[in-house]
């Protein structure tokens, strides 16, 4: 049995269920109480679980991330929101230098089972500092489990697993997908972290895409006379390269489309993993597509220009044949 | 309770006019946003007009304003950025102050010494310290004024800016627009009696004033600027205002108490209060105000027309302004 | 000028012994580093011993210490981490507290509630707030003590931690070890009279004490902990000490005034002063002290032996502890 | 005419000469006065140029980077030091969200001619938060010119250009190279930003390497019976892919070795640029070498394990034949 919910509802349900399931889980962040988050992602949680479990914080990402780290080490499972993924940098020392490294430098003796989540991605005219896709930054810092969500099904199942996982997890919903709808099981479920999903099977080309780009890739392939296999990596660190490689061994062609900036983004690395380790499975060089090396501009025609479009993806796929 | 008018009549009228300009411009902005003409987020300044205009009037043309908080449009206007430049930027058009690259949160006008927001709350204060340092090094007597909201004062970046400004006794005036809310989080929950108290450990001059009173703001910021100009170092001012509008357009404000909200609208509207004050003292007449409004409405209408007629940027313009090229030495034969 | 001894004789002797343990351990560390046996950086605690031991003695075993500043080894010892675990970690060996992954800047011992430094100065205060929150949620009466240097207080992260601790009135004790220097930059140039004044706007309890007096530290931190334990919220303490050693081994300290340095060594050595104080009051005898020293020297020798004999990590151990695996749900059939 | 100086001397000379040349240049950072920097990189400058031009700051990277941004906008050319490259994250909002984006979001009307420099890289037992190579993070954020230095010649010539350039430049010397020596011209010189250097010519394989990895690559190739062309990219953003591509067109083989973490590091992107755009110039799949996906551990055997060694580079090169 399934039912249809929106993507932000899925996010909220994941937190709701984990708050109900485990007393050690708490939620905090800016405006997570009555306001319910900028996209409705924490709506209703405060009313249900009360102010001890769901807490507005003062306006400081350093405070939020640093407190999450301490609380996690102290035996709690904090779920902490940053209002925009860009603010990973606003709590830069915590996010790059402290949280992912403290378990390692302790020789594994310290555990930091926290989850930070933050809406990422472009498309709503939010400008250069509220529109970035930061999984390239985070995935380049060993220690973070970096998880994205593409559908309500993903959002709920992956977020619940993120909260239960004993590693620091950075969970990245995409703000443009907030109101998209999808099926989720009636019953409780979780989805495995660290495993890519083959979302559509096909024989001709493997397209790796997540979040908004997954939907654009699907749109792009709808009209193509090419049998496309679409892989949603879900977790960007660690990366499940094996599922991608297996697919390319079948299709012989690879397109990687992602919303991170292309230079030292996710695309080149993913493509290179296949080239380097599965070279002879390739019938053509891979094609990578991302945000060209510019910040995200405000004006819609500019923003749409830099955000990979279905057309650009379609052209990328076709260029391999 | 009648209040004195402490500035000359002409200045008083300018204050009223300035506040009305913000209000009318923003009402129009709200409409245009509602009609889908303006992309992105829109945050309005209702309740902050007195703070913006008082501050702007206290500043010299060559003093920097590093804007902060989320009530930005009023500050752009107070610093003298032409309305068409602002409106076209809200529209994301090539005629905008930032050619559409920035939008509502980022209007900047270096010629008018408006340093634009980086849209992360609390991001203007350290740059303001740098701007003040640059002026000092260039041996001017210009100062840097920088604004931040009550919410923003919780960020460490604000406190570090205080440390740096105090360290070299730089000419920086920190204005905290305390409107009691950071989106939905009440400033009341913060510990300090006044947010300007954050200046105390640094031994800075601090003031907490009724920021809905344009004249109070004008005088207090003027004094602080004067002090900074004369080598007296930084000041922290808390300008207490009411946020008489949603955080951004679309915010349902379920977190606010309706009665209290109504009371604030009654009592803390800087424009309404000042209007009455000037009328009572015959500094303006009703018709005088109507004329002002009519003129401003024309200005605003022209700004909207300018914005509408200004072309959308060409998509390729997205690739401009990432770097100033060529890079140093690039392409030369070494 | 004789000073009273305000603790019982046994406690007093433990204080002296504790400080001597830090001193002797560190003297040995310096030697071993000089001989090239210890990799990386080494920062010693000379002058801070009283602050460390007084603080450690004030804490319960179940209170968290989130260490900060650069004078760390003394704090590890004060929190009761066994000397061999520390020394082996300095050596980067598998027997070290962190299996050699961390080294001198990172000793952590979660069992003993020592939260290790992330080596960016000022990185411990927000985690300390989180640790206090975790204790509160778990309904214990444990508190979190966190240390930072004078230099570290300029970072915004420190101030944000004050905001958060005050916001929920959490049981956090902030100890600022003001040793007058951040590497080569004098604390004197900072504006506050006392760095504990940073707590004032937050209406926190604040204290500034002579941190070279172990008993003063003990009493002040004890009171602050007591207050925090009883729901009285956070305290900020400035513990004024002298840095009687280079910033790190190898620092030539050209920036220090020699006479002043000599004066400080004369006047602000917490061990020498306390030794004399206890001798004067016959709480210890010279031979008693000699015995203490001899015992500690044996302990330290054993720690060095342990470290030397502890194997170097296998290179592949570098890949351990990045993640706890399997990740949630991984490898399962869904 | 040339003379031999050390790498840190080269750094100090670059600042010294630019301070002397241009009144608008100032230097600030933690311990840049008498102390002269952790590696001696600012030694003597304070004595010579005085406290107005060379300033110790309070201990805050946010303050340093934020003040640099403001001062640059205000008409000064600040040169600001962060004591370790890892602290780019400690000033995360300034480094990721503000400095590189403010010129862009202003529509090009605002200019931020600042230089931040920070010793990067591993090898001295400094641990996880004092040893990172961060040009992958910075290069993934459009707007920064990201420059590294491999030799004293580079260090001086590139740093001088960085200071003169009108963009925000992040300049990354490598701490392990501090005491290495090399020739620099007697006379004044600068080196072009944005241009890679062919450091050694060869016909069999192109090795892209910079900083410490350049020296290890050279060591690696000394004993190989393979004719190696070594390219030092110098600037990682923008990246001079053309020089690399030209070389690969000649050699047919590519090894990219860099000290950034491999996952979403520089290596995969650089390799992919060639694969995607010059596929048919390749006789073998490229080989990428970097820090495996772990933080830098303290203990020397662990640190040396994760830092690409000459042996690993040699093996990488040989694997292509
Ligand atoms: C660093 C950062 N955190 C969070 C946000 C999201 N945000 C935008 S405005 C705002 C509230 C700001 O409150 P305040 O500083 O009081 O300014 P006001 O909106 O009241 O003018 C928040 C949380 C942001 N833009 N930047
Ligand atoms: C965020 C950060 N900036 C700079 C450094 C480099 N550094 C290490 S110790 C130190 C000085 C610290 O001074 P203080 O806080 O007074 O502590 P003390 O060394 O006096 O114990 C500096 C600048 C660092 N480790 N972290
Ligand atoms: Mg506010
Ligand atoms: Mg100090």
From TrEMBL, chains A, D:
Ranges for domain Transketolase-like pyrimidine-binding: 5-180
Q: What biological-process terms (Gene Ontology) are attached?
A: organic acid metabolic process; sulfur compound biosynthetic process
Instruction: Provide the species name.
Output: Salinadaptatus halalkaliphilus
Keyword entries, A-Z: Oxidoreductase, Thiamine pyrophosphate
Q: What cofactors does this protein use?
A: thiamine diphosphate
Q: Which residues form the signal peptide?
A: none
Tell me what this protein is called. Answer: Alpha-ketoacid dehydrogenase subunit beta
Which SUPFAM superfamilies does this chain map to?
Answer: Thiamin diphosphate-binding fold (THDP-binding), TK C-terminal domain-like
GO molecular function annotations of the record: oxidoreductase activity
Pfam families of this UniProt entry?
Transket_pyr (PF02779), Transketolase_C (PF02780)
TrEMBL record, chains B, C:
Q: Does the keyword Zinc-finger apply?
A: no
GO biological process terms, alphabetically, are: pyruvate decarboxylation to acetyl-CoA
Instruction: Describe the location of the Dehydrogenase E1 component domain by residue ranges.
Output: 19-316
Instruction: Give GO MF terms, alphabetically.
Output: pyruvate dehydrogenase (acetyl-transferring) activity
Q: Which UniProt keywords apply?
A: Oxidoreductase, Thiamine pyrophosphate
Which cofactor is essential here? thiamine diphosphate
- One family name in Pfam for this protein: E1_dh
Disordered: region residues: 307-334
CDD domains linked: TPP_E1_PDC_ADC_BCADC (cd02000)
Which InterPro entries does the annotation name?
A: DH_E1, PDH_E1_Alpha_Subunit, THDP-binding
Q: Which PANTHER family match?
A: PYRUVATE DEHYDROGENASE E1 COMPONENT SUBUNIT ALPHA, PYRUVATE DEHYDROGENASE E1 COMPONENT, ALPHA SUBUNIT BACTERIAL AND ORGANELLAR
What is the protein's given name? Thiamine pyrophosphate-dependent dehydrogenase E1 component subunit alpha
Q: From which source organism is this entry?
A: Salinadaptatus halalkaliphilus
């Amino acid at each position: 049995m399934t039912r249809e919910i929106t993507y932000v509802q899925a996010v909220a349900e994941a937190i709701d269920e984990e708050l109900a399931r485990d007393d050690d889980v708490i939620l905090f962040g800016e405006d997570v109480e009555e306001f319910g988050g900028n996209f409705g992602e924490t709506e209703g949680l405060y009313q249900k679980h009360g102010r001890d479990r769901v807490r507005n914080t003062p306006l400081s990402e350093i405070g939020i991330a640093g407190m999450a780290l301490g609380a996690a080490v102290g035996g709690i499972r904090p779920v902490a929101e940053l209002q925009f993924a860009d603010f990973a940098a606003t709590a830069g020392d915590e996010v790059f230098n402290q949280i992912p490294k403290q378990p390692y430098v302790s020789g594994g003796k310290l555990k930091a089972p926290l989850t930070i989540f933050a809406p990422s991605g472009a498309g709503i005219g939010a400008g250069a500092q509220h529109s970035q896709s930061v999984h390239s930054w985070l995935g380049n810092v060993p220690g973070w489990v970096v998880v994205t969500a593409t559908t309500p099904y993903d959002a709920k199942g992956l977020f619940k697993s993120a909260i239960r996982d004993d590693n620091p997890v950075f969970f990245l919903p995409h703000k443009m997908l907030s109101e998209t709808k999808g099926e989720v099981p009636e019953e409780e479920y979780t989805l495995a972290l660290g495993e890519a999903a083959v979302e559509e099977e096909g024989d001709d080309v493997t397209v790796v895409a997540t979040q908004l780009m997954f939907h654009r890739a699907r749109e792009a392939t709808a009209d193509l006379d090419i049998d496309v296999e679409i892989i949603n990596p879900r977790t960007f660190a660690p990366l499940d390269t094996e599922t991608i490689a297996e697919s390319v061994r079948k299709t012989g062609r690879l397109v990687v489309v992602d919303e991170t900036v292309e230079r030292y983004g996710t695309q080149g690395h993913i493509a290179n993993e296949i080239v380097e380790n599965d070279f002879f499975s390739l019938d053509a060089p891979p094609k990578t597509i991302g945000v060209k090396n510019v910040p995200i501009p405000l004006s819609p025609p500019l923003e749409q220009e830099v955000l990979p479009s279905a057309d650009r993806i379609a052209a990328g796929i076709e260029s391999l044949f | 309770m009648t209040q004195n008018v402490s500035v000359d009549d002409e200045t008083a009228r300018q204050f009223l006019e300035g506040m009305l300009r913000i209000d009318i411009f923003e009402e129009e902005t709200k409409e245009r946003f509602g009609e889908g003409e303006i992309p992105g987020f829109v945050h309005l300044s209702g309740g902050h007009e007195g703070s913006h205009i008082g501050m702007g009037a206290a500043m010299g043309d060559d003093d920097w304003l590093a804007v902060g908080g989320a009530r930005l449009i009023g500050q752009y206007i107070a610093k003298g950025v032409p309305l068409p430049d602002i409106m076209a930027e809200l529209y994301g058009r090539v005629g905008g102050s930032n050619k559409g690259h920035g939008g509502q949160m980022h209007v900047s006008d270096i010629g008018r010494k408006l340093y634009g927001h980086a849209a992360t709350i609390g991001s203007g204060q350290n740059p303001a310290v740098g701007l003040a340092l640059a002026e000092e090094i260039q041996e001017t007597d210009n100062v840097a004024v920088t604004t931040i909201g009550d919410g923003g004062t919780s960020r460490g970046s604000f406190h570090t800016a205080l440390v740096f400004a105090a360290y070299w006794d730089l000419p920086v005036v920190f204005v905290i627009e305390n409107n009691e809310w950071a989106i939905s989080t009440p400033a009341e929950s913060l510990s300090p009696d006044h947010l300007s108290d954050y200046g105390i450990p640094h031994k800075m001059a601090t003031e907490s004033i009724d920021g809905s009173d344009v004249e109070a703001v004008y005088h207090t910021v003027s004094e602080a600027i004067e002090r900074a100009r004369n080598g007296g170092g930084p000041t922290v001012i808390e300008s207490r205002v009411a946020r008489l509008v949603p955080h951004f357009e679309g915010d349902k404000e379920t977190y606010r108490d309706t009665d209290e909200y109504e009371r604030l609208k009654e009592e803390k509207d800087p424009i309404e209060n000042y209007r009455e004050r000037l009328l009572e003292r015959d500094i303006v007449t009703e018709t005088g105000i109507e004329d002002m409004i009519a003129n401003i409405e024309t200005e605003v209408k022209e700004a909207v027309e300018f914005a509408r007629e200004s072309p959308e940027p060409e998509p390729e313009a997205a690739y401009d302004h990432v770097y100033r090229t060529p890079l140093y030495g690039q392409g030369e034969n070494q």
